[in-house]
Design a protein that fits this description.
It is a single chain. With about 220 residues, this protein is α/β, with parallel strands linked by helices. Helix content is about 35%, strand content about 20%. β6, α5 and β7 form a beta-alpha-beta unit. It binds D-xylitol-5-phosphate and zinc ion. The site of zinc ion has 6 residues, from β2. Pfam families: Ribul_P_3_epim.
Amino acid sequence: MLKLAPSILSADFSCLDDEIKKVDSSADLIHIDVMDGQFVPNITIGHEVVKSIRKVTNKPFDVHLMVKDPSKQIEKFAEAGADIITVHVEADIHLHRAIQIIKDCGKKVGLALNPATPLTTLEYVLHEVDMVLIMSVNPGFGGQKYIEFSTQKIRNLKEMINRNNLNIDIEVDGGINAGNIDVVVGAGANIIVTGSAVYNSPDPVESIKQLRMNAFK
Ligand code: DX5
Ligand code: ZN
C-alpha cells in the first residue's frame, strides 16, 4: 500500500504544532529528520522535540536518524514516541546490534542507504528489518534534486526483497515531487517522503492529494 510521509524538515519550526496539524488528515506517516551535525552537516530535531510533538498527532512517527553511532540514541527516540526508527548503515559499525536495540524497544526497524552505498550492505540483515530507506539525495538538506540512478537502485532492491520472499517496505527520500513520484512508485517504492514538495507549497493538503493522484500515472 502506498504511504505518504511528509517530512517536517521543510516545515516552519517556530510553529511545528500547526505545521503538523496541516498535514495530519492527509499524511500516512510523519517523517522526522534527526541530524547531529556530524553524520550530516546540519543539526535539527532532538528527542525532546519529538516527545513534544507526539501530543499533536496520532499518526505514526517515522524517525530518520542521520546521526553518528545511532545506537546511543535509539532508546531515547523510542521513549519519545517514534514508531519506525531508521538508522544509516554507514553510521554504525555495529549495525546488527543497532537493529537489535530497535527491536528490543518494540519499534519497527528501518535501514537507510546513502546514494553511493551499495545494496550488498543489506545482505546479512535484510531479513531482520521492516523497511529499507533509499536516499535519493545526499542527506542533510531539504529541497535537493532527485539523483536519477536511485530509480535503478529501488528496482534492484525490490528484486532482492522478492527473491528472498520477504515483506519489506521500500521508502524513498529526497527530491520527490508530483512530477516524479510515479517513477519511484513504478520502480517499487511504497513509502514516499516529501519535504519541500509539501511544505513549500501554499496548500500542503492539496499537494499531498496531487502526489497521490500522480503516483500511479
Ligand atoms: C534529507 C532528508 C529528507 C528531506 C527531504 O536529508 O532526509 O527527509 O526532508 O526533503 P525534500 O523532499 O525537499 O528533498
Ligand atoms: Zn529523511
